[in-house]
Amino acid sequence: MPVYVVFLTVSFLASIVGAICGIGGGVIIKPVLDAFGVLDVSAISFLSGCTVLAMSVYSVGRNKIAGTLSVDMSTGTPLAAGAAVGGVVGKYMFQGVRQMFENQNTVGAVQAACLMTLTLGTLIYTLKKSRIKTHYLKSVPACLAIGLFLGVLSSFLGIGGGPINLVILFYFFSMTTKVAAQNSLYIILFSQVTSLVVSVFTGTVPPVEWGILAGMVVCGVLGGITGRWFNKRMNDRMVDKLFMILMVMIIFINIYNIFYYA
């Protein structure tokens, strides 16, 4: 029971932050739950992905209904389409890496190392972004390629999206923090849907307790509701500060996980 409470609490709090910053929440859920070492890394990836999917479905759907969805469909749709394909590719990449190592802890170490590297790069970019010239891409092929890259990372790492989404949207599309957050959740939604569908139809859903899955999905939705409420009351500067604090925390958690699984 204490483990269940931890899983649900982490899912709820991570989904709040994920909805505020547009990072999905999986970038917090995955490394934190990995650190407890009570489930296989593939099970954690699946639970994290489902939680993030539930949160993103609510957040994107609610903003769409309310007419507050800040997604330019001319770029957002090809980004999402690329992410959908990337979700499939990333899932197969993860299965391939699992088969390479007999010890599944090694897979956890690989994921933690990749996530730490990406998070560190994201933090450095965020600290220096005011001095970095950004772009505004409109090319559909470029958007598809970028979406593919983000979808692969999202699915392979089991994080749903993560901070790299925001950096890409800042740099290539000159988005403000809150607009990037909404676009990131839109991309995450498509990558996670395809990743889940592939897992179901290929029979690669890892063994999980369905009670925990249902509880985490509910917490994902509740976190999305709460995070949306906070996001409406926060400006870009406040979101940036929260984002950077999280990056530091995630880096240290992943350093711990690398040594734990190695």
TrEMBL record:
**Domain of life where this protein originates:** Bacteria
Q: Which InterPro entries match?
A: TM_pro_TauE-like, TSUP/Inactive_protease-like
The transmembrane segments are 6-29, 41-61, 106-125, 145-173, 185-204, 210-230, 242-261
Q: A Pfam family name for this chain?
A: TauE
Keywords, sorted A to Z: Cell membrane, Membrane, Transmembrane, Transmembrane helix
Q: Which GO terms describe its cellular component?
A: plasma membrane
Instruction: Give the protein family.
Output: Belongs to the 4-toluene sulfonate uptake permease (TSUP) (TC 2.A.102) family.
Q: What is this protein called?
A: Probable membrane transporter protein
Instruction: Give the organism, scientific name.
Output: Hungatella effluvii
